[in-house]
Write a structure and sequence with these properties.
seven-stranded parallel sheet; 4 domains; globular; Rossmann fold; alpha/beta
Length: about 750
């Protein structure tokens, strides 16, 4: 029997579940079991749970056939738990490192019925807020245990299940279950504390309570917030049923005050109670105030909180609402003043400020007042570098399937010649560019459009992305400042909020985008449009591409395509083309392609590995990259998304990662490409050469790894991804996600 049984209910937490499970299983204490309850989650959470259960015997997976909700799902886990203590942890939260040994020591030495642990709120912008523990208990409680009647102020701690470890025999003997509905923690936590003979308090942050920007119940408006009244009724019923054992006379006033505080907190949160429900919600507070008011009186808080209590007692909704409006106006005014101080007082535009760019921006804002063009779609890729990637594939499919849509590309002036014949375009920064941006109905890009672009009503923004993320992206980069130098996260969030659709190449990408880019967009799990060509290309087309690159029949082509190191400008991994060619033999051919970011650094494209050998070709300036994938027999890369695209072809891939430890530390990774590689792995250049010389590149082990990789990352790339996007976005057809869902 384990000391601790973790019960983890899982529903729509795919972006955070791995972090949660790793925090439970990766501690320096393993006398635990994890009961993971899949509450019929519609995302990739079940797939994640299956992987963990297959790798770690401590994980037991329970699958429910229908969604029952958080409380009943916890009950299912409780019924299967065997540990001495049960800890209900939510799937989007995570434990602090090394907290379990300390918790285990406290449990074993004091044997509490309930052990309360501290937490911090971790907000989506990576800031933290401490709990109320130090306010509720200014003086350390220490290791002593107590009853709630001896320390009634403990009621002021957060009423969640996840900040409590409960002795299982005590809980089972109590017969307490989680009730259905929202706010289920209320009718669990308070009865547990009321009934416990031995309550312990560990003054140590053990739980990171995630404050999600999107998708959290506390940020979801609706009438289900009315469930809070039924949950508090259960608390007072429990109190009435056990008056002598728990000290009802002393604790009734304390719980009453906490109940009113909770109701007012829910009502005061503008993201929970819709305006048309607010008066009715207030009436319910008034009714419960009269119903549960202690017969011998109760404490009324000081200040504004006390005023709220008195207005509730008197049933004065109009006064309450009016005072709330005044308070909100004051808060808004103070925010405006603070924002103005941060910006500085703006001066009137003088002649020096009236630049050509400012004139065009003014025209852009004027164009925003004109009607949206219902037939216009604007496309862009890689910061206006040309016709490429997913937007290009979507554009081509739209010309065929939605000819009524007029597609216009945005390109830099120096990249106009790269456009295919017949593609309409505007040059970035021109009057036509601003006019087109302002009036387009659809905006399709594989990066974000500039900050000044406005999201107009009725327009649709499609974020296609440009790769499966190995490296940490978006908000997750806050933890890796070297790789996020100069990134304005507030501006990033404003750009994300413009998205209507996010294109996902695989389930893993969906999970990572959800946490890196939290917003209200719709994810289209359709595969990558740019990979359609890798599926549909014929043998004759491939032969023509190889010939165009100077590849002779019988030559084995190796494409080396390392990624960019934002934290190390100018860095090139150790690589000697001649030594690799020597290992390949006389039939070997090497294509070397640097990352497109390198033209930002130096103003020109350079691979960094010059060679006079005719068998080495610099293809850094070659477009599109899909041609190179089709022409190559083997891909060598490091942390680049190229491996996910190339795996569609089911050809050998070598991961060459000579700086993995440093890259992981400085840039952060979502995936260890050496542990979950699509083929052979080398961490030194000598190892890379040996992989070719020894035949490891083509070994059965490398092939098996590639098949597992393809099964995880390439199942949606069936040649019809672009068509699925066009039918959903431009034709508004209810096509499904994934392969086979077209037409």
């Amino acid at each position: 029997m384990a000391l601790i049984s973790f019960v983890v209910p899982v529903h729509r937490v795919q972006g955070y579940l791995r972090e949660c499970l790793d925090s439970l299983l990766g501690q320096a204490f393993d006398d635990v079991e994890v009961i993971a309850v899949d509450d019929c989650s519609p995302d990739a959470s079940p797939e994640i749970l299956t992987g963990y259960a297959g790798r770690d015997r401590r994980v037991r997976l329970v699958r429910l056939t229908g969604n029952v909700g958080l409380g009943p799902a916890r009950n299912v886990g409780l019924d299967r738990a065997t540990g001495e203590y049960v800890w209900f942890v939510d799937g989007d939260d995570w434990l602090a490192p090394d907290c379990l040994p300390v918790i285990a020591e406290r449990l074993r030495t004091t044997r509490p019925d309930v052990l309360l642990v501290d937490h911090v709120r971790v907000h989506w912008d990576d800031t933290t807020t401490r709990s109320a523990l130090r306010d509720v208990h200014p003086e350390p409680v220490g290791a002593e245990t107590f009853r709630l009647r001896d320390r009634p102020e403990t009621v002021g701690l957060l009423h969640t299940a996840w900040n409590k470890l409960v002795r299982r025999e005590f809980l089972v003997g109590l017969g307490l279950r989680f009730e259905p509905g929202w706010y289920e923690d209320v009718s669990f936590s308070y009865p547990v504390l009321l009934a416990a003979e031995r309550i312990g308090l560990l003054d140590r942050v053990c739980v990171n309570y995630r404050q999600r920007r999107a998708g959290a119940i506390t940020r979801t408006p609706g009438d289900r917030h009315l469930d809070v009244f039924a949950q508090w009724e259960r608390v007072f019923r429990f109190l009435a049923d056990h008056p002598a054992a728990i000290g009802a006379d002393e604790l009734h006033p304390v719980l009453f005050e906490r109940m009113v505080w909770h109701y007012l907190t829910v009502l005061g949160n503008g993201e929970r109670i819709a305006p048309h429900l607010r008066a009715a919600f207030f009436d319910r507070i008034v009714a419960d105030h009269a119903r549960w008011r202690p017969p011998d009186g109760h404490r009324v808080p000081d200040g504004v909180e006390g005023l709220k209590h008195r207005l509730v007692a008197a049933g004065r909704w109009r006064t309450f609402s009016a005072l709330r409006g005044v308070h909100q106006a004051g808060v808004a005014a103070r925010r405006t003043v603070r924002a103005a101080r941060r910006r500085g007082t703006p001066a009137l535009w003088g002649a020096a400020r009236l630049t050509w760019d400012a004139v065009l921006r003014a025209e852009y804002h004027a164009e925003l007042r004109r009607p949206v063009d219902p037939t216009l779609a604007v496309y862009a890729a890689y910061w206006y570098r040309g016709y490429a990637c997913n937007p290009a594939a979507i554009h081509a499919a739209a010309r065929r399937l939605a000819p009524h849509v007029r597609g216009v590309w945005v390109v830099r002036r120096d990249r106009v010649d790269a456009l295919p014949p017949g593609v309409e375009y505007v040059v970035a920064g021109t009057r036509a560019y601003f006019r087109t941006l302002a009036r387009a109905r659809w905006l399709v890009n594989n990066v974000n459009f500039p900050d000044y672009v406005r999201k107009r009503p009725g327009t649709v923004h499609v974020q296609t992305h440009h790769g499966t993320p190995v490296k940490v992206m978006g908000l997750d980069q806050r933890r890796y400042p070297l790789g996020a130098s100069g990134l304005d996260f507030d501006a990033l969030l404003r750009r994300i909020d413009r998205w209507d659709y996010s294109i996902s190449s695989n389930s893993f990408s969906t999970q990572m985008w959800e946490r890196a880019y939290p917003a209200a967009y719709t994810t289209l799990e359709v595969g990558y449009p740019r990979n359609d060509r890798l599926v549909t290309a014929t043998a004759d087309e491939i032969a023509e591409l190889r010939a165009g690159l100077g590849v002779r029949p019988g030559e084995r082509v190796v494409l080396y395509a390392p990624t960019h190191r934002e934290h190390l400008p100018g860095y090139r991994p150790p690589f000697d083309p001649h030594r690799l060619l020597d290992a390949l033999g006389p039939a070997g051919r090497l294509l070397v392609r640097s990352h497109y970011f390198h033209d930002r650094e130096s103003g020109e494209v350079t691979p960094g590995w010059p060679s006079a050998d005719p068998r080495v070709t610099d293809v850094s300036g070659y477009h599109p990259v899909e041609d190179l994938y089709l022409a190559a027999d083997v891909l060598v890369t490091d942390y680049s998304s190229a491996m996910f695209d190339y795996a569609v072809l089911d050809r050998p891939i070598v991961v060459y990662a000579p700086d993995l430890a440093a890259y992981r530390l400085a840039r952060g990774v979502y995936l260890d490409v050496t542990e979950e590689s699509p083929g052979a792995v080398a961490t030194t250049f000598a190892g890379l050469v040996d992989a070719f010389r020894s035949g490891a590149v083509d070994s059965a082990a490398a092939t098996a790894r590639r098949q597992r990789f393809r099964a995880r990352f390439c199942v949606w790339d069936d040649g019809h991804a672009a068509e699925r996007v066009v039918r959903r976005v431009f034709l508004d057809e209810p096509v499904g996600d994934g392969p086979g869902d077209v037409g």
